[in-house]
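Appendix B, example 12.
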Amino acid sequence: LPAGVKLHLFGGLHAVPPYDEDADGDTPPPPVTALRAALEEADALLIATPEYNASVPGVLKNALDWASRPVRESVLLNKPVAVMGATTGMFGAVWAQAETRKVLSTIGARVIDREVPVARVQYAWERDDRLAPELEVFPHRQRRDHAPALGHLDDAGARALVRGHPAQRLA
């Protein structure tokens, strides 16, 4: 990552309970408070998602439901967000990305309307942990286009974002 840009990975999604409007009062569950605080603190978001059954994973959709509240006061309101996807298949989670962008737009986030698919992610890495040269996770043109909102992500940044995807562990 370039100087001055910090990447924070949020690892608490599995602790966030299923969305329940009745539980979303003055004192939401602690994992929800942590999620909202992390989103509030971020200058911009990059959401990296796999695709399950041609759509958004339930854990991600659930987190977005919690983050969308209260309506018109969401921590995602006007937040710059980019979405990328990785799958072991040929299409790089393009449907999950489209659905995630739709949900984020409905919430009121400023969503970058561009797909960043990583297909066949299990082959994306060389043995020395570098991106395979034939795969361009973030083509240079796209990096420049997104720089104002998200900073300049290099291959190391892309690797950190994709690393958590279960398919990467198969390589």
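The helical segments are 30-41, 58-67, 94-107, 140-150, 155-162. The chain has a mean pLDDT of 80.
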